[in-house]
Amino acid sequence: MSGPLFLLLLLLLSFIAPRLTAGYLTVSIEPLPPVVVGDTVTLKCNFQTDGNLREIVWFRVNTQVADGGKQKIFTYDSMYNSSYSHLEDNRRREHLSYHSTVRLPEVHMDDDGLYECHVGIYDRRTRDKVVLASGNIFLTVIVPPRSISLEAADSPAPFSRYEVQNFSLVCTVTGAKPAPMVYFKRDGELIDVVPSAQSSSVGEQAKVHVQEKTQGRSQAGLWSGQVSTSRDIDDTKLQKSLTLLEHAGKLAQLGQDSPDHPKDENEQISKADSEPTEIIPETVVSREFPRWVQSSDPLYYSQHQQQDAGDGTVQVRAMLTWNLNPQVDNEALFSCEVNHPALSMPMQSEVTLASPRGPRLSMSPSQARVGDTVRIAVQGFQLGPSASEVFPQPIFTWTRVGGRLLNGGLEHVGRELVLERVPAELNGSMFRCTAQNPLGSTDTHTRLIVFDNPKLKKGRQFVAIAAATGKASLSLPSAVLLLSFTCGQT
After folding, report:
1. Structural contact between residues 339 and 311, judged by C-beta atoms closer than 8 angstroms
2. In sequence order, what are the beta bridge partners of 395?
3. What is the mean pLDDT of the chain?
4. CA-to-CA distance for 223 and 300, rounded, in angstroms?
5. Which sign does the torsion angle of CA 377, 379, 382, 383 carry?
6. How far is CA 83 from CA 53, 76, 79, 80, 275, in A?
7. Which residues contact 266 (CB under 8 A, 6 or more apart)?
8. Nearest of 455, 428, 430 to residue 445 by alpha carbon
9. What is the DSSP string of 425-449?
10. Least confident window among 43-52, 340-349, 472-481
11. Which residues are registered as beta bridge partners of 304?
């Protein structure tokens, strides 16, 4: 019994004795949270050993190189630093703890990567051998967004009075690492959006959402897109259309029942032609917004795209799309907000949807004369209390009431209308400026008064006098010839 125990004890001693004499070394690096670019970071390497310290080497590992190239950023050698030279009694074993720190001031994006701490101690059995151990940490450098912008897609765009029009806002965030989280708000409230990837078309999403609402599965606060079918056609239009159809049907029936009375038939036909008729009720339109367009609870669809900027940052492009309602969406405040770990508070950009109203026109010169170049431009608009500018950008169209423009065209598109060398025939002409964006359209007029130009008038008189003088000089020789001919005859 004692024999096996003795052998087991010898095996344990043979296994433990070399380790007791060689010494031990453990290395660890304290973890770090992501560091914002421009901050100062300190890398700390902790190690415990019972031996004599030989060296400490910090490396930065280049992960982009295939063989994992390493760059030395700090070296400590005990042979050349007396502060770490300790005379230790070999008969006494001490367990010592050390730490080495590397400070990186104002970190850049290039500092992002893997760092290693290598520690070496002398072997307790012989100083010719060194025991090595290492630890590593990945330093993550994050960059806050550099810019954010909120714009209208497909701008400028015209106003559509009788058709449902999709409208999109595009939020672009640049210079961020990693990609930020982008979301939209309307009047300060978060918009619950439907990702466009869930469906191939907007119409299918609307149908699915209407079914969900009828089944009672809609979430609280969701901007739904259910439109009442009873409001598809204006009641007044429908009633008027039905009345006209019934009246036209009665006239047709009377004409078929009495073919023997052509006089009555002609009277009925003339009476029918004199009254307005309508075959399709939808052709009766109004200058007001049709009711079937209105939806106070539209569906909002979102689409996000990411693109590498080439400098290590990411550009994010988020798009919000919905069916525009000019009556409800006018002067609504939409904002795009960004959350990022490098930001202490959200970054945002906001716009107020506003239709153009009351354009203010300016004319230069104020008193145009014949031959002058006249410029008529839009200086501004009458804005509501919550709008600082017209958004989206409007389209400006210029026309001449009752005629063509000076260049012969029917209209001119642009913020400014230029009339070069205006003739006297344009005196009293009325010009119309139409400003429109997807939220509305407005017209304003200005009249051009052209005064006589004294310079041109003097020039014309000079030409007339020169012509008269030429005629007089030509008549004098003819008079002399006539006098000589008369004398010869006598």
Report:
1. no
2. 436
3. 75
4. 7
5. positive
6. 11, 11, 10, 9, 112
7. none
8. 430
9. GGTTEEEEEEEEETTEEEEEEEEE-
10. 472-481
11. 318
Using CA atoms, how far apart are residues 96 and 52, in angstroms rounded to an integer?
Answer: 9
Contact by Cβ (8 Å): 322, 227: no
* Nearest partner of 336 among 135, 190, 138, judged by Cα: 190
Residue 392 pLDDT > 60, yes or no? yes
CA 301 to chain centre: 15
Position 52 scores a pLDDT of: 82
Task: Let me know: does 341 contact 181? Beta carbons within 8 Å.
Answer: no
The residue behind tokens 């290395």 is 27
Q: DSSP label at 177?
A: B
Judge whether 59 and 74 are in contact, CB under 8 Å.
no
Whole-number Å distance between alpha carbons of 438 and 353: 10
Q: How far is CA 274 from the centre of its chain?
A: 54
What are the structure tokens assigned to 396, written together? 């400006």
Instruction: Give the helix ranges, DSSP H, for 262-416.
Output: 262-274, 326-329
Residue 115, C-beta contacts closer than 8 angstroms, at least 6 positions apart: 29, 43, 58, 59, 60, 61, 73, 102, 136, 137, 138, 139
Element (H, E) at 22: helix 2-22
Structure tokens, 24: 């031990």
Q: In this structure, are strands 41-49 and 25-29 parallel, antiparallel, or unpaired?
A: antiparallel
Q: What is the helix (H) or strand (E) element at residue 379, kind and residue range?
A: strand 374-380
pLDDT of 461 > 50? The answer is no
> CA-CA distance, 364 to 342, in Å (whole number)?
52
Cα–Cα distance for residue pair 261/273, rounded to 1 Å:
18
Q: CB within 8 A of 377, min separation 6: which ones? A: 361, 362, 364, 415, 416, 417
DSSP state letter for 391: B
User: Model-level pTM?
Assistant: 0.65
The Cα diameter of the chain in Å comes to 184
| Residue 153 DSSP SS3 | coil
Categorize the per-residue pLDDT at 2 as very low, low, confident or very high, splitting at 50, 70 and 90. Answer: low
Q: Judge whether 257 and 187 are in contact, CB under 8 Å.
A: no
Per the structure block, which two tokens stand in for 285?
């339109």
Q: Can you give the pLDDT at residue 422?
A: 94
Rounded Cα–Cα distance for residues 112 and 243 (Å) = 77
Residues 6+ apart with CB under 8 A from 12: none
pLDDT at 306: 95
Q: DSSP letters of 443-471?
A: EEEEEE-EE--HHHHHHHHHHHHHHHHHH
Which tens digits make up the pLDDT trace of 56-69? 999 999 876 655 67
Structure-block tokens of residue 224: 């739904």
Alpha carbon dihedral 149, 153, 157, 159, in 10-degree steps, equals: -90
